[in-house]
Amino acid sequence: MIKDFIVDKVVSRAGKMSYGHAMKATELLSQVRALPSRERRRFLAAIRTLEEDSLADSPARAQRVTWPDVEARSKRIFGGRVLPNLVLVEREEEAT
């Protein structure tokens, strides 16, 4: 049953070639449910191995990003000076 799954070539309006499936996911699930239990287990085991292979091929984890120390940079540029919050200064001027 599942072996008869067909993939059709589809040409989009932009002229690019893509592939579309001739079967919806619900139809696929109903066909899997109709399989005998032994074949269903083999099918699910094949899906698991595909998933494990795809996980093994992908990088284990993205490396952590080292962000610059903004506080140290501002101290290096401005020293010990404290700059006023211009938004608060403007709001105080508008209020008066």
Task: Give your account of this protein's structure.
52% of the residues lie in helices and 10% in strands. A hairpin with a 5-residue loop joins strand 1 (7-11) and strand 2 (17-21). The protein has a two-stranded antiparallel ribbon with strand order 1-2. It contains 4 helices and 2 strands; from the N terminus they run E-E-H-H-H-H. It has a domain at 2-57. With 96 residues, it is mainly alpha-helical. The longest helix has 21 residues, at 37-57. The chain starts with 6 loop residues before the first strand and ends with a helix. Mean pLDDT is 78; it is low at 1-7.
CA distance, first residue to last residue:
80 Å
| Share of helical residues | 40-55%
Q: Count every beta strand, where a strand is a DSSP E run of 2 or more residues.
A: 2
- Please count the helical segments: 4
Structural class: mainly alpha
Uncertain spans, ≥5 residues at pLDDT below 50? 1-7
Neighbour order of strands in the largest sheet: 1-2
Strand content: 5-15%
Mean pLDDT, as a whole number? 78
Shape: elongated
Largest sheet: 2 strands, antiparallel
Round the Cα radius of gyration to an integer and report it. Answer: 30 Å
Order of helices and strands: EEHHHH
